[in-house]
Fold this protein.
Amino acid sequence: MGKDKLRKFAEVATFTNVLQLDAGKEYKGRWAARFFKNDNPVILELACGKGEYTVNLAKLYPTKNFIGIDYKGNRIWRGAKTAIEESINNVGFLRIQIETILEQFGPGEIDEIWITFPDPQPQDSREKKRLTNPKFLARYNEVLKDGGLMHLKTDNDDFYAYTIDQIENLGLTKIKETTDLYNSDLVDEVLSIKTYYERKYLQHNKNINYVQWKFGAK
């Protein structure tokens, strides 16, 4: 590991807006009240990387709470540091494996979940790692409120098609979908938030896929 990564890992451990591994478990079912000190809705960004979506959503919606989740502390460092520098207090970051989400959040605790440009895990042997496979979807359904929204943005057409198949196979409700976001009428101030990776893809004229869905009544 390079010196810069080591420095970021050490610094992120001092940030009050970052919890790592088991530290988040004590907030399970009480994130709004205990971590954010309010009763506002809680929204997650999974595989948040540098946290661009988490931070920018928080700026747009100061009366909602946002938590970025990723396992790579050196990536979380950027979003967490930006939130501290800009005094964005409705943002937190959680360094965990997404597989453990049920250990960190209580049933019906979350209002929305965003998945923005995750690793598509294209190999068939890694299908179980895809963040929209049925096992992950079942976990999200448990922590989401009834009718809570799911969002996916991805440049990977195969991963998008895979996700659409899962939504349809499970009988979930698609609300919005497009295979070319920036040439659609769906784009708005929320969907026009761009991550580091999205900017790179757009420079190469890559289409951006987006789908919004919900699980419905449990």
About this structure: The two ends are 44 Å apart (CA to CA). The helical segments are 3-12, 31-35, 52-60, 73-85, 101-104, 134-143, 157-169, 196-203. The beta strands are 18-20, 42-46, 65-70, 91-95, 110-116, 144-154, 173-178, 209-214. The chain has eight helices and eight strands.
